[in-house]
Fold this sequence. Notes:
The chain is of the alpha+beta class. It is 34% helix and 30% strand.
Amino acid sequence: MNAELIEKKVILNDEKLSSALYNKSSFGALVNNKLELSLTEALYLIEKEKIIVYDNKKQLTYDSFLKKASRLDKKFMEKYKVYRDLRNRGFITKTALKYGADFRVYEKGSRPGDEHATFTVLSVGEHDPFSWQEFSAMVRVAHTIRKGLLIAVVDDEGDVTYYSCSWQRL
């Protein structure tokens, strides 16, 4: 499948193929019969050899796409490692910007739109500074929207460790 990088999204114009990818695996969002993918979704599909992405008619390799995405988002590689790990484990993973997190995660077998996400996920590098105020705000937002919060820590080797956080009243 051919796709085109447009700003911070990747667009698949083929209506039939877009619909199939969306309905089968819940990638992206269908907008006007075109599939809009986030940068993390697009890199995952490039890695799995499911799509070919072009930027101004020039084909992007995995490395060139990664370089472009990393320029657009300084934390892209950390986010991608978390996204890939969750997808490889069978979870449906979508963006969660409106919740102040990187991703929302749906239980295995769930479909976005039919069911609600179970968790929001914040991706951090093991050496990234993280204040108690940021942490408290994330836990509070997750509690308010009735989702669990996972802090996904990416270590120097690229491994991801998840910490589940929740609001407790004593």
